[in-house]
Design goal:
Blueprint: H1 3-19, H2 23-30, H3 34-41, H4 49-59, H5 63-67, H6 69-85, H7 90-115
Amino acid sequence: MSDSIIRLGVVIRTARLNTGLTQNELAKTLQISRRHLCDIEHGIHKPSYDLLCSIIAELDIQIENIFHPEITYIAKNLDEAIILMHQLEDYEVDAICVGMQVLIRGKRNNSHLAEGTISKRE
């Protein structure tokens, strides 16, 4: 099982759930068994090109979701964050921005520690 096949299965399963279809309903529409669809969703089997095209069309999956699902995930979370931040006062947004900067700096420092380029201070 490769990571890309697993990610593809997650994208398909998420799209199916977002449309409200069951595995049985989608499998029937695609003229495949529910077991085969289940295996695709869990990254056990990869769909043929024709089946993938049918799945994309049936679930109205955007093509970028197939090739770059992480971008869609980031964009969705970013949209949600922006909506939430509009409900905050300016000083609260400033505090969140400072917190994010601290997290990013900490992450960079930790990656240097892991690489052995910076020694830990005692």
